[in-house]
TrEMBL record:
<keyword id="KW-0833">Ubl conjugation pathway</keyword>
<feature type="repeat" description="RCC1">
    <location>
        <begin position="92"/>
        <end position="143"/>
    </location>
</feature>
<dbReference type="InterPro" id="IPR051709">
    <property type="entry name" value="Ub-ligase/GTPase-reg"/>
</dbReference>
<feature type="repeat" description="RCC1">
    <location>
        <begin position="302"/>
        <end position="357"/>
    </location>
</feature>
<dbReference type="InterPro" id="IPR000569">
    <property type="entry name" value="HECT_dom"/>
</dbReference>
<feature type="repeat" description="RCC1">
    <location>
        <begin position="249"/>
        <end position="300"/>
    </location>
</feature>
<dbReference type="Pfam" id="PF00632">
    <property type="entry name" value="HECT"/>
</dbReference>
<dbReference type="InterPro" id="IPR009091">
    <property type="entry name" value="RCC1/BLIP-II"/>
</dbReference>
<dbReference type="GO" id="GO:0016567">
    <property type="term" value="P:protein ubiquitination"/>
</dbReference>
<dbReference type="GO" id="GO:0006511">
    <property type="term" value="P:ubiquitin-dependent protein catabolic process"/>
</dbReference>
<feature type="repeat" description="RCC1">
    <location>
        <begin position="144"/>
        <end position="196"/>
    </location>
</feature>
<keyword id="KW-0677">Repeat</keyword>
<dbReference type="InterPro" id="IPR000408">
    <property type="entry name" value="Reg_chr_condens"/>
</dbReference>
<feature type="repeat" description="RCC1">
    <location>
        <begin position="1"/>
        <end position="56"/>
    </location>
</feature>
<keyword id="KW-0808">Transferase</keyword>
<feature type="active site" description="Glycyl thioester intermediate">
    <location>
        <position position="946"/>
    </location>
</feature>
<feature type="repeat" description="RCC1">
    <location>
        <begin position="197"/>
        <end position="248"/>
    </location>
</feature>
């Protein structure tokens, strides 16, 4: 061990000099008079104690107030663990925490007598790393769990603001699941580092030593965002400063700069990580922080750089002075060309390094393998699959890894080009193809797979914390589906239900992150995930519908809810899988058959309607047709009325007046009567009511609805002085139409139905509503940067801010995407918030049947506004006949005449049959009835719009049929027959 700095430390054999300060690195004195002649492996310096561990597992310590005291000839105190060798240790102010070679933790309080290490049995796991602050300690276990104990005066335990100081190690749940590789502690602050370079800090922050941009203490671990994606591989803490090292060899420092320990050529504190520019160009491989100084080692140059406080010689510059920039340590008297530098250490006012043979090279910046958490790799899998290894040891390894989410989260990383260091909300950092290959290989051994499933189901899943810290803690939720794929069918069902329950336990913000990761999965992996939950849900539903009728569906609710979330995520994916992959088609079969046999089936279907993604379109229409009323609600439907009496010419004013008037029960069927007409409303009259109402509304009230000249689509007006009550009535009208299975085509774009169902409109929706406006906005995304800047475009539209203070923000190359998103948000949300909210309130009043939310936006749009995808051949194929045969001459003539009609005339025919030219999605079948007139040539065809029946006289010739039929469909405005 080579050392320099405060005190000779000769009692520990760390210096042959008799001076109180060593200004240059000095070889330690290996004499039997100090310690046994063995190499020193680890040294740690606390405020009041210094301790070492030698490679033979022995150790020693001295209290600082006894060092260098010529009057005090006391020998160093021996450190030993009963029946154990010391593997590593760390010193606090007056305590030492040791880890044995078996991973047991012991603590020695130097101020207590006798100095006997006591075991910390509260940690029931194998510990691989410890780090001590002045009065607190952090320990990392082999399975990735973090424990803290000691003082919590400034939040240095990370247990929360209300957590007291404690002598008993406490599990730090907020970092549960994060695959950690390093822990370190300053005087009153703490840091840990994840395998993919995420840095978490907590504790005292009076000088900015947490790197968070402020000086506020943190009582819970928080990621240092400024170091995100920097590929951090090492972190070290001083008293009130911190240094981090990237894989590329860059050093960032932050916190107190009072002594120049940040290396920025100043004594200023830094509240955020700042690159040490003076080390630029030299790939640093190790860093270490003392109390007020820092070390950086460049292995390619075999040079240690030091900066900060040097008053005790800790900088090794032959001068007892401070340095604000990194300067080389003078190694000339101690450095041998045959030896190299192994590991550097710094603590208190001392600096150290271990010499190694020159050919050995410097150790990696990461901890050695036995100081890393357990992870699964191909080498370990091959060992498990080998029959030559003891099964008990293999079983123990399987349990250790598959009962730890941290271990799994640290496995299967995307190593090529360091992609796992680029972990974001859309990139998990995983190479899931490795996970798939691994589980396929493990599945070849039944006993290995059985042990894995047991560990996952009995230990891992129950222990998953509902709020893992970020993406790295959520990786396990992407890995386990690959295990699910290789399980036998029966095991899949149990596993899937337990896994679904764990997913749904996640806190909302974590679940949102997971959904984002799902949306970025490759198509085959996402398809596999969907298949797993779909197949298990399908099996359980079939069992449920066949044998049970009670109201609740608890056993399958979790898998269905996850499947529904995947269904929603699918709409956000760039490459969507077909929605039929989510359908459970057996439900429709039970709906059409067992519904008559099983009186409780409708109750089961009602519960299942909470998960609309599992239904195909036809099943949704069947479900929506059910009267979802309890007996009490059913009785309520018989009270009150929902009748309207209107004049065709004043239909809009009449409707609003009556909706404003007396109480009406919207659960009752709508009955419409036109003034001076004797039509009885069995559906056809009310359908024409909506058709005429839509025409007048769009023409007579432009203050509410504006229509795009190009697309003829309608959207809410943006005037701030709008009468919002009118939007309520508009919503009621649309809701009544939907509830009563009528078409009300107000020509709204798909965006309205997205908003009704909770989907966010996009730029594509703006293109549908107004392609001219959307085209202008979209150009902002693709125009040259210099052209964009020349436009002086700001974040406003028509005098309205798109974002706060939008008029002061110019659109640039860096925020152009934000501008387009803000523009779309303004058009569809911000500018019409009160209008839409009023419409939605009215819509839910007019349609008391809440099951409309089972539809997709395009399905709900077709249900309310009708369908224009005419298939005339399908209409002919599905037509039924009364008192006619398809082969009758009059029927043949009818279809001949029908085929001669123009597209516009065929639409007139649909209006003649249904009261609207748009097809009702639930009514696509008509019936042709022989009217049995004695003189058929004297009569025109008539229709029953309520039942979609055509009363067709049996004409004597095709020409008479043609004349009568064309005249009938051309003049069919008023009711008299109904």
């Amino acid at each position: 061990m080579i050392c320099w700095g405060e005190s000779t430390l000769k009692e520990l054999g760390l210096n042959s000099s008799h001076h109180d300060v060593a200004l240059r690195p000095t070889q330690n004195q290996e004499t039997p008079g100090s310690l046994e002649n063995a190499k020193i492996a680890t040294v740690s310096v606390g405020k009041g104690v210094v301790a070492v561990v030698r490679e033979n597992g022995t150790g020693a310590f001295c209290l600082r107030d006894e060092m260098g005291d010529k009057k005090n000839k006391r020998k160093p105190r021996h450190l030993a663990l009963w029946k154990h060798k010391i593997d590593t240790l760390s010193c606090g102010a007056f305590h030492i925490v040791m880890v044995s070679e078996t991973g047991n933790v012991f603590q020695l309080n130097c101020e207590e007598k006798p100095n006997i290490p006591r075991p910390l049995n509260a940690i029931d796991r194998q510990v691989i790393q410890v780090a001590c602050g002045d009065h607190h300690t952090i320990a990392l276990s082999k399975d990735g769990q973090l424990f803290t104990w000691g003082s919590n005066s400034n939040g240095q335990l990370g247990l929360g603001n209300d957590a007291p100081s404690t002598k008993t190690p406490q599990l730090l749940y907020t970092l549960s699941g994060i695959p950690l590789v390093m822990v370190t502690a300053g005087r009153d602050h703490s840091f840990t580092l994840s395998i993919s370079g995420t840095v978490f800090g907590w504790g005292k922050n009076n000088a900015g030593q947490l790197g968070l941009g402020d000086k506020t203490d943190r009582y819970d671990p928080i990621p240092v965002k400024s170091l995100h994606l920097k590929r951090t591989v090492s972190i070290s803490c001083g008293d009130e400063h911190t240094a981090s090292l990237t894989k590329g060899g860059l050093v960032f420092t932050f916190g107190s700069g009072k002594y120049g320990q940040l290396g920025h050529n100043s004594n200023r504190d830094e509240l955020q990580p700042r690159l040490v520019a003076e080390l630029w160009g030299s790939r640093v491989t190790q860093i270490a922080c003392g109390r007020h100084h820092s070390l950086a080692y460049v292995s390619s140059l075999k040079t240690i750089y030091a900066f900060g406080c040097g008053e005790q010689g800790q900088l090794g510059s032959e001068q007892a002075s401070n340095q604000n920039v990194p300067l080389p340590v003078q190694l000339s008297s101690a450095f041998d060309s045959d030896h190299g530098i192994g590991t550097i250490f710094a603590g208190g006012n001392q600096s150290f390094y271990t010499p190694i043979q020159g050919s050995e090279g410097s150790p990696e910046t990461r901890p050695c393998p036995d100081k890393m958490i357990s992870t699964l790799d191909d080498k370990l899998i091959n060992k498990w699959m080998s029959d030559t290894k003891p099964w008990k040891k293999i079983k123990r390894e399987i349990i250790n890894i598959f009962s730890s989410d941290s271990s799994l989260n640290g496995s299967f990383l995307h190593q090529s080009d360091d992609k796992h260091y680029q972990t974001t909300l859309k990139n998990s950092g995983l190479d899931l193809s490795l996970a798939r290959q691994a589980f396929e290989k493990l599945a070849k051994s039944e006993r290995v797979l059985t042990e894995i499933v047991s560990a996952v189901q009995n230990k891992l899943i129950p222990s998953l914390y509902p709020a893992p810290a970020g993406v790295e803690g959520l990786r396990v939720y992407l890995i386990l589906p690959e295990l699910l794929r290789v399980l036998p069918v029966t095991a899949q069902r149990v596993f899937c239900m337990l896994f679904a329950h764990a997913i749904l336990k996640l806190q909302p913000d974590c679940l949102k992150i997971l959904e984002g990761l799902w949306s970025s999965l490759p198509e085959d992996l996402f398809q596999s995930l969907v298949n797993s939950f779909q197949s298990v849900s399908s099996w359980f539903i079939c069992q449920r519908c066949l044998v049970e009728t009670e109201r609740r569906v608890v056993p399958i609710r979790n898998t269905l809810e996850v499947l529904q979330k995947l269904f929603v995520v699918n709409f956000k994916r760039n490459r969507k899988i077909h929605k039929r992959k989510f359908y459970i088609t057996q439900i429709k079969q039970f709906f059409l058959s067992d519904r008559r046999i099983n009186p409780g089936f409708e109750i089961v279907v009602r519960d299942l309607s909470l998960y609309p993604g599992i239904f195909d379109k036809e099943t949704k229409y069947l479900i929506f047709g059910i009267k979802w009323f309890t007996p009490l609600e059913e009785a309520y439907c018989h009270y009150g009325h929902n009748d309207l009496f209107v004049n065709r010419k004043t239909i809009l004013a009449d409707t609003i007046k009556q909706l404003q008037g007396c109480y009406r029960n919207y659960s009752c069927p709508l009955k419409v009567t036109f003034a001076r007409e004797d039509g009885v409303d069995e559906g056809g009259v009310s359908q024409e009511f909506f058709t005429i109402l839509v025409r007048q509304f769009c023409c007579l009230d432009p203050s509410m609805i504006e229509m795009d000249e190009t697309t003829k689509l309608s959207w809410f007006c943006q005037q701030e002085d709008s009468e919002y009550s009118k939007f309520v009535y508009l919503g009621i009208v649309c809701g009544m139409a939907l509830f009563n299975d009528r078409v009300a085509n107000f020509c709204f774009p798909l965006a309205l139905f997205k908003k009704l169902l909770g989907f966010e409109p996009t730029l594509e929706d703006l293109k549908e509503l107004s392609p001219v406006v959307a085209g202008n906005v979209e150009q902002v995304l693709y125009m040259d940067e210099d052209v964009l800047e020349a436009l002086y475009l700001d974040f406003t539209v028509d005098g309205h801010d798109l974002v706060p203070n939008g008029e002061d923000i110019l659109v640039t190359n860096f925020n152009r995407k934000q501008y387009v998103e803000a523009y779309v948000e303004f058009v569809f949300n911000k500018s019409v918030t009160r209008q839409f909210d009023s419409f939605l309130r009215g819509f839910t009043i007019g349609c008391p049947k809440r099951q409309w939310n089972i539809f997709l936006p395009e399905e709900l749009m077709a249900l309310l506004q009708g369908n224009v995808d005419y298939d005339w051949d399908e209409l002919k194929k599905n037509t039924k006949y009364e008192a006619y045969k398809p082969t009758d001459e009059n029927i043949q003539n009818f279809w001949t005449v029908f085929s001669e009609l123009s597209e516009e005339q065929k639409k007139n025919f649909m209006f003649f049959m249904t009261g609207t030219e748009r097809l009702l999605v639930s009514k696509t079948q008509m019936t042709i009835v022989n009217s049995n007139k004695s003189n058929p040539d004297d009569y025109s065809p008539q229709s029953s719009t309520c039942f979609c029946k055509l009363y067709l006289p049996n004409y004597s010739s095709i020409q008479i049929l043609r004349d009568k039929f064309v005249h009938a469909i051309s003049f069919c405005e008023e009711f008299g027959l109904e």
